[in-house]
Amino acid sequence: MPELPEVETTRRGILPYCQQQTISEVTIRNRQLRWPIARSLPSQLRHQRIDDIQRRAKYLLFITKAGTLILHLGMSGSLRVSNKDEAIQKHDHVELMLSNGKILRLNDPRRFGSLHWTRQAAEKHKLIRTLGPEPLDDQFTAEHLYATSRNRRVAIKNFIMNSHIVVGVGNIYASESLYLAGINPGRPAGRVSLQRYEKLVNAIKETLRAAIESGGSTLNDFIKPDGQPGYFQHHFRVYGKTGLPCEQCGQPISQVTLGQRSTFYCKTCQR
DNA sequence: CAAAGGTCCTGCTCGC
DNA sequence: TGCGAGCAGGACCTTT
Fold first, then answer.
1. Does strand C come within 7 Å of the CB of A154?
2. pTM value?
């Protein structure tokens, strides 16, 4: 479920409740997430103070003096801040009790999320080390995409969804960005010019920035950390719009499968 | 039965 | 033939 804007919205939402709070207790109700949660995790987290929560790609990094908790929400995960008297819900797998009396709860029906503890700097962790640049950083440029895509035949949509190339471009924003840039999602990445990569980089940055500003777009069950439903109806131009008229040319939006993911585009406007 | 917002891992293919 | 990089598909799950 969460794309980068939702993860960033989550980070901003929970930070005021977590920052400088000490974790007094950790409850693991179901350890079978994407990878089994380490048995040692509760004892490593207990008594640690959360100095900050940062984000790298779609990972949330809970920074403490002793180490960092690396959390991923997977496809269907969400975090919410509860009071002690609020009952747990179905699929609440992990709870962090905080010194201010709040409880941070991880809910994840599909259990594709993950939790890792590292004593090193998070950047050195296996899951983080090999990641490409942040899309909103200045290091993410057209030159970077152009240089790394030479001689590559993979579809451009799969290319920009590859976290080793650039992080944080999920299935929705890949389609949306390619539409804005006028690039056919199936085009081989190695056959996109530098000029068109300029348009694409701008489109990715604009799309993500706008979504973060809007508080994250959501489709089904994204719950904001304070418990408010995050049903922000984002205006998608092509995602989920199969058969509806293209805003630019009026032709029906097409749907294809690329890399086993639904892909939406305009056959006329995107080449 | 199909599809849903993620992404790591495995094994195959391709070109040097 | 061997090797590494690139690539497709599978895997992990529940809900609608």
1. yes
2. 0.95
